[in-house]
Structures are given as structure tokens and as C-alpha cells.
Amino acid sequence: MTPTLVQHHPNAASAPPTGARARDWAEIQERMLVPLYEAVYERLEVGPATRLLALGCGSGLALLIAASRGACVTGVDADRERVALARERLLPDGARSGAAEDDPARLAQLFDCGSVEGKDPADPAYNLVTAFEPLGCAAGDSEGLAPALEDSLPLAERGSAVILVGWGPPERCATSAVLRVASRLTDTLRSTGGAWRPAHRDDLENVAARAGLKPDGSGRVACPFGYADTESAVRGLLSTGLFDAAIRATDPAQVEKELAEALHPYVRRDRTVWMPNVFRYLIARTP
């Protein structure tokens, strides 16, 4: 089975980062959740027998870590630029030219078509589905995950693990205070249901229930957000897309200014920025 990366159509209300912002995501922000990826993979014993489908795979770092453990991996993301960066990161020139099956490394197959419709029906079904993009930082942010789960779960084996991730309690997530900047800067977020809100205890269980999944364990992982300086922190946070509505309602300079001010309490003496966070993951099973 040739491993994979896919692009699904973004929600019309969002504005995915492109170009330089996608590069900022890959080089600055994506690594912040590495402790989460590793904890999940270790708990589920991800290895050569794993056939992974990653929803919201970004520029492929979590896929790369899984592939290094021997897994066959497929990735789906809404942003074409991120998928392109994942392709650079995961596929050698030979794989792009159709020689992936002959490569001894277990690399990612990359899609850019909007769904996993490029999957070969002869390939084995997936036995692990991950959605590492954290839920719980904006009202209604789980709604975009529902269609992706609906499309992907029929491709998974019965009893396969599905990983859902959410922000921890605000008092344990320093970054939650910074995310409130978006709500303060625009009424658009409030009127469209995208305003920041604290994570609720049962957010992940509710998503699992709507998808017909059965909870089968959970865990918490510390994922501090650390940046070389305030400029890097601003670039990394803007690359998430969580401030896009605020930018549309005001202007980039205003958003950057207020974001830098919100980061001030987390700037250390050496000018690095450090924000402790805790993320929760839920293991659910397909019926």
C-alpha cells in the first residue's frame, strides 16, 4: 500500500494561509504539538502494521513522525499550500513520478483533490484515523470536522481507533488568553459563532457521539508553545488561520499589534516567548 496526503475543500467562512503563511506554519507553528503526536503514537503502538489517515494533516510533520515508525500514512488538509509543503517534506522525486511503490521507505501518499477519493480500492482499509487539529478554541469549530469524519470513517476497519484532540482548561492553557484577541477585534466572529470560548469537558465526546464513535480512553499532554521572539510568535499564531476573520474586519497591522501586546506577559528575559498549554485527546472506536 502506497502511503498518502489529501486536500479537502475549506469552509467558506475560513481563510486558510497561503504562501509565506503556510511556510510559517511548517517552520514555526506545526512543531508545537509534537509531544501530542508522540504520546498518541506511543500509546497506540503505531508501527509497520499501522495504516493511518490524518485529517487536517497540515504540512505533514505528524505524518513524518508516523512514517518514521514504519506506518503507511495518508494525509488530508484544506490548504493547498500546506499540502504542497507536505509533499516536499514526505515524497522524494521518485515518488512524485510514480515510483513510490518501489521505494523501501514507508512514505506518505499525497492527495490534493478534496477527499480520499484517490484511494485505491484494492488497498487495505485504514486502522487509525487522527484529527490532531485541536477543538475548543472557537464556538462551532467542531462543525468542520463532521464532514471529514463522515467521508473518512467508511474507509476504516471496524474497531479502528479515531483520535480527536481538544484544548485543555483555559487556566492550564496560556495561549487561550492570546486567542481572545480575535474576538475583541471583530464583531464578525461573534455574529458567525466563531468567537473564542473556553473548552468544555465533553467537547470531544460530543463530536465522537455525533459521528457514531464509541469512546475508548483519553489522555492529556503538555504542549508548551515556545518561540524565539515575539515576531516569531506572531507569525506562528497568524499561520493557524484563527485570526483571519479579525484581519478581514480590521487590518493585518492592527491584528499584529494587539497580538504582540497580548503576548507580552509571556516574554521571558531572553526575549523568547513561552506559553504552557495542555491538550486532551480522546481515543474513540469505529462501529
Write down the oligomeric state.
Answer: single chain
Biggest sheet architecture: 8 strands, mixed
Tell how many strands the DSSP assignment holds.
10
Measure the end-to-end span: 24 Å
Give the proportion of residues in helices. 25-40%
Order of helical and strand elements: EHHEHEHHEEHEHHHEEHHHEE
Percent of residues in beta strands:
15-25%
Give the class from helix and strand content and strand pairing. Answer: alpha/beta
Mean pLDDT: 82
Number of DSSP helical runs: 12
Radius of gyration: 18 Å
Low-confidence parts: 1-17, 94-107, 188-194
What coarse outline follows from CA principal-axis ratios?
globular
What can you tell me about this protein's structure?
- This protein is α/β, with parallel strands linked by helices.
- It is built from twelve helices and ten strands.
- The protein has helices at residues 20-29, 34-43, 61-68, 80-90, 93-99, 145-152, 175-185, 187-191, 203-210, 230-238, 244-249, 252-263; strands at 4-7, 51-55, 72-77, 108-110, 126-135, 156-167, 214-222, 225-227, 273-275, 278-285.
- Strands 1, 2, 3, 4, 5, 6, 7 and 10 form an eight-stranded mixed beta sheet that branches. A two-stranded antiparallel sheet has the order 8-9.
- Helix 3 (61-68) links the parallel strand 2 and strand 3.
- The protein is globular and about 50 Å long.
- The relative contact order is 0.18.
